């Protein structure tokens, strides 16, 4: 029995945080192969796009990553995969896809694993500081249930924050024992963060460098510390630079830095940090008129903020934890300031625009407010310092047993309440595209057309908002089955070859659109029968001009036409 207990003890924390991840996304676990969590997304565009991204990583892994950057979208554009987050580490979900063939199941498995690791890694980090036993559990739950992360649940790359915590843990370990191996672990942890989310890697770099001085202290003057940091730099550079260089390479000359006005629209404001993503159980946001707030909702929770303030005081007073407290506080303040973007002015000087002008990546990163994720994580770490300080006061300075037990119970209950004070509501889902209904036309493309065929899917997107591109990501989802190159596509950046086609395709199958499709090497046109283009395409095909009907799918309401070469007209 003792042996079983010893074996089970290390598994307790992983099991608890896995159950917490499943509970937080319930009822996703009931149907993980047919539904996609939306978070606060208004359309399924981004979730479907990330399903396609996970598929592409699995598909390229099976071929030894041949042509990894030349994804089969935006044809004939090369390097199309560099226009968005590549998520190379999503390849861990590849076995699920290879075994089951289900893209949605692989995506949801990866999502649950990320939420699970968020809580577990936070728990492991807090265990390093020898806090009272309940504190790592509460801190892990706070990170696993982070309101900011759950509001972004429809954007897969924003879910894994455990890489940030792992990097912080590696830096903390390095400050205590500076060795080349420790430096390599730090470089690997940062690289992991960057490869899971380039946004997080880019945004973590500067706050971490500015705050690390508190942890490194006087050891920064020692040669062995510099040797360890050099090892971190080498490992991080070797892993991250190939991806950063490729993503930063401008293939069509129009991916310039965003304007100050544009970045300001996507920057946080100070009041944003007082409004939670969902209604607070106390109704505080409603009483202050914030229920219809139009800005970004970035409040981690009022109890967390209060505990973090207490943690700042306790940490600065405790000599043993002062450097750790200053590190967390510095990182929080730098991240908070940077999240304000160009809106932060110091006597007319804009620190963020200095980064845009001189550091690669900041000018292309649109959503400046996402620095808030670092603020949230540091609030949790400081809040755990506050809980530890309150428990220490209760244990040492309350003499009567009954009052001491009551104070300890109330303190722990406060921490638990803080973990769930901004609890995610029932998760909205979108239904996965119907594989059975679309099997006929998809299989026809996969089996009856040459492997190097190029297709265009109609309708083409016209609306500029994210919801307007949902049809594009549905076309991309079907591409994961038929594998044919498309001139269609969706990403974080749209190449000029795609944008130049949008307006002519609004008049498909007008001569100009047909001419442009010929120029892009298109062989087949897939047309939704319930679109406004279906009748015009049918009439053109009936005249035997430009289009030749090759398949009519009455179940999916799809028609496929072969684009007759211009030389044969």
UniProtKB/TrEMBL annotation:
Keywords: Membrane, Transmembrane, Transmembrane helix. The chain crosses the membrane at residues 104-126, 138-171, 191-216, 228-245, 301-318, 325-348, 368-394. This is Glycosyltransferase RgtA/B/C/D-like domain-containing protein.
